């Protein structure tokens, strides 16, 4: 089995509709795909309706959290999105996403960048507007030459001149909310020593104590030494390690399935959940 547990559609900051994401996943030879849009589950139904024969869909989400002033992302799987406490938190996160992006546009305009809020909303399309949409609007407006240039200290990188921080959801609380909703959480792309997502071992141990189920070990942004360290850490904490492409659709080589999750880790994910939301197959 080829299993990819991290992908995005245009329900958040991917560029392809959920139906196209699942079609491309099957064409890429995947057997299992998790759809994990940022802070929204609005793509689940479209993906399920378009699910091609032979592909299993794992409903998921990528939750935006804040830990000691830094961004931290958690992948949640197989939870009930209508669970009251989690649903309320997701509503608050999405509202903050809109305010955050609008404030970044205001800061960009104050810096002389001719970026339109209306265009940012058009690029977002769905309910989950984020920094990538602001960055794309910056490229379109000629403010920067590339998305990478937008994500620098001059512009909208963490701590940049036009940056606004995300909603301050505590990651340990997020783990508990997903567990209470019957699901399980995996720490997304920790990137040891390489970015604002970096977490020390002690922080990961705290999340494990809160109920974290796994760590995303094999990710396109992780160097071999990162993967070895994270794999050892996960094993020491009794967590499973996943592999995922973190697909957004914009790369010319279409990296769906470039990194995959081993079958035992996928089975461990399934057994770590307790709710009624299960992987979906075509009917």
Automatic annotation (TrEMBL):
<protein>
    <submittedName>
        <fullName>PHP domain-containing protein</fullName>
    </submittedName>
</protein>
<dbReference type="InterPro" id="IPR052018">
    <property type="entry name" value="PHP_domain"/>
</dbReference>
<dbReference type="InterPro" id="IPR016195">
    <property type="entry name" value="Pol/histidinol_Pase-like"/>
</dbReference>
<dbReference type="Pfam" id="PF02811">
    <property type="entry name" value="PHP"/>
</dbReference>
<feature type="domain" description="Polymerase/histidinol phosphatase N-terminal">
    <location>
        <begin position="3"/>
        <end position="67"/>
    </location>
</feature>
<dbReference type="InterPro" id="IPR003141">
    <property type="entry name" value="Pol/His_phosphatase_N"/>
</dbReference>
<dbReference type="InterPro" id="IPR004013">
    <property type="entry name" value="PHP_dom"/>
</dbReference>
